[in-house]
Structures are given as structure tokens and as C-alpha cells.
Design brief:
Strands 1-3-2 form a three-stranded antiparallel sheet. The two termini are about 25 Å apart. The chain has about 160 residues and is mainly alpha-helical. It is built from six helices and three strands. Helix 1 packs across helix 5. It is globular, with a radius of gyration of 20 Å.
């Protein structure tokens, strides 16, 4: 029997925060014609330089097939360019175009408004503590996900 209301559980609170964050970012990015994944690709390429589709897929948390579609769309919009890797002939390396960097810079200015608002909502010590707590929570979530994925399917399934 469930003893406490779900609102008192930590996971739904984390989920509500994540949903609010995504809703904000999606609303801002929509005005620039970007999805969250496209924005993340632009940001990642800006910070890391050229990357393969597989590397970008891992970085953005999407499948390689999804990333392939995202990159094709972004290349058609001339936000990125893809060139054959000098190391592996079958690997395409994506890099930002000037248009992609310009669009990222404009979108980032608005995304940064939320970052500043969140930072300003806490004292410096609260902010540092929150960041540490979120990192710890993320580590537990990753560990538990790996554990769940590695566990044999021993759970009882309902029968019809």
C-alpha cells in the first residue's frame, strides 16, 4: 500500500522541474525555428568543435537514427556542414556554419535569461549546494538506471 501522496516523493518533483525547464526552452527556441535537440547540437558543436553523428547522439541523449535526421535538417538549413572524417571515410564530421553560430548566439542570449533568474533565486551558498545535490541525484539516477537495465526480468506481469 502506498502511504504518502505522490507530491511528497522526490522523483515527481524532479520531473516537474524538468518539465518546466523544457517548456521554457522549447517556447524560447521555437521563436528561432529550433528544437531542443537542434539547440543542443549547436551548443555542443560550439563548445566542442567538430563531432560525428554518433558522438552528438550520445551528447544529446537521442538515438543515432534520430540524430541523423536532425543533422540532415540542420544541414539543409545551413546551420551545420558535414564533411568526411580524415580518419574514417564512412564517418561524417559536423561543424557549425557562421549562420549556425549566429543563430546559437541569439538563442543563447534568451536561454541565459532563465539561467540568470535561477541563479538569482538562490544565495551563492544555496546555489552551490543545489548544484551539488543535483549532481548527486543525477549520479544516483544513472546508477539505478544501469542497475534496472542489467536486472533480469523477474517482475511478475499481469495476466489477462
Amino acid at each position: 500500500m502506498v502511504e504518502a501522496a505522490i507530491e511528497n516523493d522526490l522523483c515527481p518533483r524532479i520531473r516537474r522541474s524538468e518539465q518546466a525547464l523544457m517548456a521554457h526552452h522549447e517556447a524560447v527556441l521555437r521563436t528561432y525555428g529550433l528544437t531542443m535537440t537542434q539547440y543542443t547540437v549547436l551548443l555542443t558543436l560550439s563548445r566542442e568543435g567538430g563531432m560525428s553523428g554518433a558522438q552528438l547522439a550520445r551528447s544529446c541523449g537521442v538515438t543515432q537514427q534520430s540524430m541523423s535526421s536532425v543533422l540532415t535538417n540542420m544541414e539543409n538549413k545551413e546551420l551545420i556542414r558535414r564533411e568526411t572524417s580524415p580518419v574514417h571515410a564512412k564517418v561524417q564530421i559536423a561543424t557549425l556554419t557562421d549562420a549556425g553560430q549566429t543563430l546559437l548566439d541569439r538563442a543563447y542570449e534568451e536561454v541565459a535569461v532563465l539561467e540568470r533568474a535561477l541563479t538569482d533565486a538562490f544565495t551563492p551558498s544555496e546555489y552551490a549546494a543545489l548544484c551539488g545535490l543535483l549532481e548527486r541525484a543525477t549520479a544516483v539516477l544513472i546508477q539505478q538506471t544501469r542497475h534496472a537495465a542489467a536486472s533480469p526480468a523477474t517482475k511478475a506481469t499481469p495476466s489477462g
